[in-house]
């Protein structure tokens, strides 16, 4: 039996990969990360939207493509491999999943229609639910929200931000509302932006079904963790490819370093550890749409395991490059830092493993 991506999924994935190779080479990524070429960032964002990746999870009846999470995972892998600056995780994965499982029929109709036409886009602030800090906290009462949340994802082109409290109640706030303060957060990953937000009696619209059930936030986190794992998978593959290419060119003692046994072993170990991760991500994405019983567990396993494997790959790939790997000249650090931050987005491996244990009744 063949277990892998379909021809359509591979075609979609390759289109994204080719677009990034042609339109967003490393020199462009460097400029964008330094804030020097925001017009190109906007063009890249629009180009990827033109490919349709913003509508992958939007139902067909609302103008979307009506595809599943496996398609989204394939795309996320390409985005990670191309170290894309496109905000995919929050507005185009977590938000539609949260709406699918948490909104009323009227809310779904309105929000999905607006999302498919790019009239509305969401940043995501869910850290209060799975990893709140002592210095933060959100209180949602009487259709208003008060408090502070850290690490709000993907606000670059957002018109609204979707929030969740400790109970799993989800709502969204217009960024034009009063009582909002936004602070830029500085992280090691310069390819994406993160915010700290505080609210003071800010109007919020609650997704109706989240008032009595935590299903929506759980499914949104499951999807987000799988997509983050796929992003790290693509970034890891890019680092392996660069390490192998470098080992075939760099010479020491009149021999390419790829001929040395130690370098061969590092490249082989990276490849051997990463290869099974493909089937892990694919199975987790498949389980999300086809096996609710395994969805939580597989999402946690994919996120935690690939976080560890990609960390190992990023270190060894950098080591293969020697001192050059730590310089800005090669740009290897873009993937290195992206993998490092992905490890903590939507829960570190320790948090996610604990959730996996609870899901099994341990």
Describe the structure.
The protein has 362 residues and is of the alpha+beta class. The chain has 3 domains: 109 residues, Acyl-CoA dehydrogenase/oxidase, N-terminal domain (Butyryl-Coa Dehydrogenase, subunit A, domain 1, Orthogonal Bundle); 92 residues, Butyryl-CoA Dehydrogenase, subunit A, domain 2; 145 residues, Butyryl-CoA Dehydrogenase, subunit A, domain 3, CATH 1.20.140.10. Helices cover 54% and strands 14% of the residues. The strands form 3 sheets. A 4-stranded mixed beta sheet has the order 1-4-5-8. Strand 9 and strand 10 form a beta hairpin. Helix 1 runs parallel beside helix 4, helix 4 runs parallel beside helix 8 and helix 5 runs antiparallel to helix 8. The longest helix has 35 residues. It is globular, with a radius of gyration of 20 Å. The chain starts with 6 loop residues before the first helix and ends with a helix.
Main attributes?
single chain, 362 residues, alpha+beta, Butyryl-Coa Dehydrogenase, subunit A, domain 1, Butyryl-CoA Dehydrogenase, subunit A, domain 2, Butyryl-CoA Dehydrogenase, subunit A, domain 3, 3 domains, four-stranded mixed sheet, four-stranded antiparallel sheet, 10 strands
> Which secondary-structure class do the elements indicate?
alpha+beta
CATH class of the largest domain equals: Mainly Alpha
Proportion of beta-strand residues: 5-15%
Helix fraction by DSSP (H/I, runs of at least 4): 40-55%
**Rg, alpha carbons:** 20 Å
Whole-number average pLDDT?
A: 91
Please write the string of helix (H) and strand (E) elements.
Answer: HHHHHHEHEEEEEEEHEEHHHH
> Total number of β-strand segments?
10
Principal-axes geometry comes out as: globular
The CATH homologous superfamily of the largest domain: Butyryl-CoA Dehydrogenase, subunit A, domain 3
CATH architecture of the largest domain: Up-down Bundle
Number of domains: 3
Uncertain segments of ≥5 residues (pLDDT<50)? none
């Amino acid at each position: 039996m063949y277990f892998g991506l379909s021809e359509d999924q591979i075609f979609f994935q390759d289109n994204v990969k080719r677009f990034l190779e042609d339109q967003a080479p490393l020199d462009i990524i460097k400029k964008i990360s330094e804030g020097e070429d925001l017009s190109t960032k906007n063009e890249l964002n629009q180009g990827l939207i033109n490919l349709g990746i913003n509508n992958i999870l939007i139902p067909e009846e609302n103008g979307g493509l009506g595809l599943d999470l496996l398609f989204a995972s394939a795309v996320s892998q390409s985005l990670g491999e191309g170290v894309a600056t496109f905000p995919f995780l929050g507005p185009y994965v977590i938000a539609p999943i949260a709406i699918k499982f948490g909104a009323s029929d009227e809310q779904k109709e309105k929000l999905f229609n607006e999302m498919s036409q790019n009239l509305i886009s969401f940043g995501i602030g869910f850290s209060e639910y799975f990893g709140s800090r002592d210095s933060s906290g959100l209180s949602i009462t009487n259709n208003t929200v008060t408090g502070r949340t850290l690490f709000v994802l993907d606000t670059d082109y957002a018109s609204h931000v979707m929030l969740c409290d400790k109970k799993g109640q989800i709502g969204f706030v217009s960024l034009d509302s009063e009582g909002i303060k936004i602070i830029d957060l500085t992280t090691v990953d310069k390819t994406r932006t993160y915010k700290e937000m505080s609210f003071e009696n800010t109007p919020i619209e609650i997704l109706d079904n989240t008032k009595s059930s935590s299903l929506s936030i759980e499914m949104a986190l499951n999807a987000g963790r799988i997509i983050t794992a796929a992003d790290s998978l693509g970034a890891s593959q890019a680092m392996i490819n660069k390490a192998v290419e470098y080992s075939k060119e760099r010479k020491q003692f009149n021999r390419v370093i790829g001929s040395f046994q130690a370098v061969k072993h590092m490249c082989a170990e990276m490849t051997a550890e990463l290869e099974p991760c493909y089937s892990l991500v694919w199975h987790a994405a498949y389980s999300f749409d086809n096996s609710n019983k395994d969805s939580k567990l597989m999402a946690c396993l994919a996120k935690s395991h690939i976080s560890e494997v990609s960390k190992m790959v990023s270190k060894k790939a950098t080591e293969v490059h020697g001192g050059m790997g730590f310089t800005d000249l090669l740009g290897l650090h873009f993937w290195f830092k992206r993998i490092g931050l992905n490890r903590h987005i939507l829960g570190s491996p320790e948090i996610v493993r604990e959730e996996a244990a609870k899901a099994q009744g341990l």
